[in-house]
């Protein structure tokens, strides 16, 4: 069964790794090409946009794709919507693999907000030294905050306008709680801003913030398309693929 995995996450790489080793599966993974030096999944990989939902639909047909797994990041809402539209129009089964979000535990002080702009509005109440860990996209929403100082962590340098007082730290997780605690202390951070990305690669910052009694502004996920079929684990996505493959053969 020829399957397109829309990737850019650890889960997408794990699924490609499992399926590539199995007879009867022909996997192609797709990356957007955002990161300069991406972690590549096993097997065939294509890089770059498809040209919207219509481009993706054409690509599915031209490449004989029989199933699609959207294993993109929970905040990659445009490609997720495009995948839903393209798969529906092409009559190809689609599954969204979406890891669970994080949840607040004892000792946490979280402020949930709907988007980056709301996170920026919440900050003046919360502190002056901000650790911004939302990747490089969305950082522009904080550009107008002149009173705060920002530690901006991203894999590649942000290309949008940045707040006037900042330090950019280029790093790719996973990070340990000890490393995150050291960072919070060395930069005298008052407040952390994160997306509700979920997963264990970048969750150490939440434990470090809890230990330091710091407030955390958590940006909520965009919703999945209406009626979308989704699972939360790689194992469940693999089960789905196997079931589709036995139907296809
Ligand atoms: P997005 O806003 O949902 O998508 C914007 C456009 O980028 C899409 O319309 C599509 O272009 C292209 N695109 C996105 N993902 C693609 C993929 N896997 N393969 C081919 N084209 C893709 O996406 P994003 O938030 O910029 O994320 C881009 C990539 O980074 C995704 O693969 C995602 O899994 C990964 N990522 C995102 C985040 C995040 O916080 N957003 C974090 C970690 C990793 P066309 O319309 O031309 O097809």
UniProtKB/TrEMBL annotation:
Known EC number: 1.3.1.106
Keyword Oxidoreductase: yes
InterPro entries named among the record's database cross-references: Precorrin-6x_reduct
Pathway named in the protein's UniProt entry: Cofactor biosynthesis; adenosylcobalamin biosynthesis
Keywords: Cobalamin biosynthesis, Oxidoreductase
One of the record's GO molecular function terms: oxidoreductase activity
Matches recorded under NCBIfam families: precor6x_red, PRK08057.1-2
UniProt-recorded name of the protein: Cobalt-precorrin-6A reductase
Organism for this UniProt entry: Nocardia xishanensis
